[in-house]
Amino acid sequence: MEIRKLNTLRGLAALIVFITHFSDITNWLNGMLGGGSGAYGVMLFFLLSGFLMSHLYLTQKFSNVTIKRYLLARIARVVPLFLVIVLSSYVLSLIGNDSLYNIPDANALISHLLFLYGDSVLWSIPPEIQFYFVFLIFWSFSKNRIGYIYLSILAVMLLLFFANFPRVYGDINGVRYNLFNTLRSLPYFFIGVIFGMHYKSFDVPKYLKKHYFIFVLLLIPAMYPEISSVTSDAKTKMWLSYEVLLVMSSVFFCIVFLVPDNNVLLANRFGDFLGKVSYSLYLLHMPIIIFVNKLNLSVELKLLLSFVLTVSVAFVSFKYFEKPVARFIRNIASNKSFKRTKNSWLLLLRR
Q1: Under a CB-based contact definition with an 8 Å cutoff, are residues 188 and 5 in contact?
Q2: 332 closest CA partner among 73, 80, 81
Q3: How are beta strands 175-178 and 169-172 bridged, if at all?
Q4: Distance between CA 70 and CA 57 in Å, rounded?
Q5: From the CA atom positions of the chain, what is the Rg in Å?
Q6: Which of 2, 18, 26, 28 is deepest in the core (most CB within 10 A)?
Q7: Over the chain, what HEC string results?
Q8: Closest alpha carbon to 86 in 76, 71, 101, 69
Q9: What is the distance between the alpha carbons of residues 192 and 153, in angstroms, rounded to a whole number?
Q10: CB atoms closer than 10 angstroms to residue 126
Q11: Count of other CB atoms within 10 angstroms of residue 172
Q12: Predicted confidence (pLDDT) at residue 334 exceeds the cutoff of 90
C-alpha cells in the first residue's frame, strides 16, 4: 500500500536542496536560506530510504529470489540516471565544458563508477548504494534474530559518536574515496529503518493523529544557520550533531505517524508529481541554476526560471528515461520475463 504523503515529503526534500543552492549561488535573500542547509533535505532522503526499505522488504522472505528483486528494484531507481550524468560530465570535462559536474580524468570517473566518491550533489549517491548492502544484513536478521538489528544500530551509532565520526577519505593511486560521507549519513538511514520496522505495528491513538502536526516541518528552516538561535556547534556541524538527528527524526516521525494520511497539504497531485521527479530534480538542478545565474535577470526571475527549467527537465528525464529504464530492469527480476527473453533469443538463433 502506497504511503502517499511520502511523495510530497520526498519532493520537499529536493526543494530544500534546490532553494539552498539557489540562495548560495545567487545570494538570494543575502544567502539566508543557504549556508549548507540543503543537508536537511538530504537527511530526509536518507530517512526515507531507510524507512521504505524496511517497510517494504523486512516482512518478505530473505531468499535469493527476493534479494535479486530488491537489488534490481533499488538499482533501477538510482543507478541509470547517475551513470548518464557521470559519463556526460566526464565527456564534457574532457572537452573543457563545465556545464555539468567536474569529472576531469579517468581516475575521477572510476571513483564515481565504483560509488566511492561524488562531485557536488553526486556525493550522496555512493552512500545510498552502500546502504543497499547494509540493509541486506538487517534483512538477514529479520526472521529469527530481529533484535540484532536494534543492537547493531545502537552499537554503530555509539561507536560513531565516541570515535567522532572517523574522517575516512583520500585516494588510492589517484582514485578518490570518501567513506566519511557514508559514516555521517548512517544514523539517518538507521532511524529510517527503525521507523519502517514499526510503521505497520505501531498503533497511534486517534487523539494523537492531528493535521496540525504538519507544522513540525517549520523546525527545519528554524535550524538554518542564518536563522537558528541555537548557539551550539550543531548549526554548523549538522551531520555530526545528534541534536540535529533528534530534530530531523522527530519531524519525520510526526509526518509519517501522526499526520493523517489524507492531509491535503501532503496528499495531493502536485506532491505526487514532485515526489516522482525528485531524484532527477536533485541531480540536475545545480547546472541549471548556474546557467540561469549567468543571465541578466532579476534574482526573482532567476528563481522562477531555474525552478521551471529544473522541473521541466526532471519531468522529461523521469518520463522518457528513468521510468522506462527502471521498468525494463525490474522486469529482469521476473522469472517469466527472463524466460520470455531467453525463448526469444533461442527462436532468433534457430532462424
Answers
A1: no
A2: 73
A3: antiparallel
A4: 8
A5: 21
A6: 18
A7: CCCCHHHHHHHHHHHHHHHHHHHHHHCHHHHCCCCCCCHHHHHHHHHHHHHHHHHHHCCCCCCHHHHHHHHHHHHHHHHHHHHHHHHHHHHHHHCCCCCCCCCCCHHHHHHHHCCCCCCHHHHHHHHHHHHHHHHHHHHHHCCCCCHHHHHHHHHHHHHHHHCCCCCCEEEECCEEEEHHHHHHHHHHHHHHHHHHHHCCCCCCCHHHCCHHHHHHHHHCHHHCCCCCCCCCHHHCCHHHCHHHHHHHHHHHHHHHHHCCCCCCCCCCHHHHHHHHHHHHHHHHHHHHHHHHHCCCCCHHHHHHHHHHHHHHHHHHHHHHHHHHHHHHHHHHCCHHHHHHHHHHHHHHHHC
A8: 101
A9: 11
A10: 23
A11: 10
A12: no
- pTM for this predicted structure: 0.93
Contact 274, 6 (CB under 8 A): no
**What is the per-residue pLDDT across 40-94, written as a single tens digit (0 to 9) for each?**
999 999 999 999 999 999 999 999 999 999 999 999 999 999 999 999 999 999 9
